[in-house]
Amino acid sequence: MDTTQTYRVAGHNFSVQMDATSALWNHLGNYAPFETQACDEKEKIFTLRVEDDLQTDFHTFSTLLLRKDPEAEALGLEVYKGAQGDYLFHLSLPHTDGVNARLRVSSDYRTAAVQTEGSEAAQAFAFNRTLMICYLLATAKLDTLLMHASAIVCDGKGYLFMGKSGTGKSTHSSLWIKYIEGSKLMNDDNPVIRIVHGVPILYGSPWSGKTPCYRNVSAPVGGFIRLKQGAENRIRRQNPIESYASLLSSSSGMAWEQSLSDGKDCALQHFIALVPCWLMECRPDEEAARLCADTVRKEEPCND
Amino acid sequence: MKIIEGFKLRNVAGQTVITGEGLKQIDFNKLISLNPTAAYLWQQIEDKEFTVETLVELLTSHYEVDEATARQDAEEILQQWHAVGLIEA
């Protein structure tokens, strides 16, 4: 007997459907804060169904679009395009043999089906990533971006700290929490940003990397801060091109189709026009947090 | 030579930039800013086979510039584009 649960992330509803007894239900704790009431199909961006016997005829999915082999930390991914314009994804965890999730997504990204394999933990991990992919595809044209950032909320405004892995995004967040009164972690890895009626909003999400911080909260975006390690603490505004590049490199995207990359470009342009972007060179210390907070909180939203 | 597949010319806040967007450029994590001349050339040679001569001709016919200067500019631009991996032989 199938059960359906609907979730709402950044104001976008989606449903998960699977057998009521499936062990995967026990691994969706990070989604619990985002549970919402069942709603009409029209009000959902996608439905993902878990199947035991997913039909993925390889003759119809003959075009390989993309292949990335699994690496130390990164998931392996293969993407095929089918005759009907639908997609087939193969996800493989590092250090496992074979494919841990096979995901079929319709050409309009609204209907998805997945079959998971491997140990229970591997299946749960792959299923989580499957949901991220579905969300990414279904929101690509909706002025919505899944960011790679650590995000805090302070005095009702959201700030995103971005940068390469190992730069100290989480560290900088924790410095704000420690030294800047009124600041709280919103999400430590993959917050969502979205333009709602012309206002840029930051949302918590069920995806937060190694920090279990799955908060269903939102706040208007106050600033995007790109972090770089430095000997001194220094901060400056980025010009529009730098801002665009900064957001582009820190947002997830599956830009293999013109319509998907056009959607992303549109969202990026909206955000850089509305929100100040900064480049901060910093040490992991109290002064860095204070300099950053003093600078970015003073700034009024962009007017250009 | 020709432009490698998967690049797209975009306008960001009034400036022309190149982003890597196609599947072939899924790992191209850069944004290349083009001045108006470079942007003009790019638009003319997109999806085409071209040589240094093509660029020299485009420059001399579109701008008030002598051939020697045009050739120097064309070679410089091609060198830059080649260095960041935008074109192939």
What does this structure look like?
The complex is a heterodimer of chains A (304) and B (89). With 304 residues, chain A is of the alpha+beta class. Chain A has two domains: 2-139, no CATH class; 144-298, Phosphoenolpyruvate Carboxykinase, domain 3, CATH 3.90.228. In chain A, 23% of the residues lie in helices and 35% in strands. Chain A has helices at 120-139, 169-179, 240-249, 258-274, 286-298; strands spanning 2-9, 12-19, 35-36, 44-50, 63-68, 76-81, 87-92, 101-105, 111-116, 144-146, 150-154, 157-162, 183-187, 192-196, 199-203, 218-229, 234-237, 277-282. The mean pLDDT of chain A is 92. By secondary structure, chain B is of the alpha+beta class. Chain B has one domain (2-88): Arc Repressor Mutant, subunit A (Orthogonal Bundle), CATH 1.10.10. Helices cover 43% and strands 22% of the residues of chain B. Chain B has three helices and five strands; from the N terminus they run ββββαααβ. In chain B, the strands form two sheets. Chain B has a three-stranded antiparallel beta sheet. A two-stranded antiparallel ribbon of chain B has the order 1-5. The mean pLDDT of chain B is 90. Chains A and B meet through helix 3 and helix 4 of A and strand 2 and strand 3 of B.
Sum up the structure in keywords.
heterodimer, A: 304 residues, alpha+beta, Phosphoenolpyruvate Carboxykinase, domain 3, nine-stranded mixed β-sheet, globular, B: 89 residues, Arc Repressor Mutant, subunit A, three-stranded antiparallel β-sheet, two-stranded antiparallel ribbon, 3 helices, 5 strands
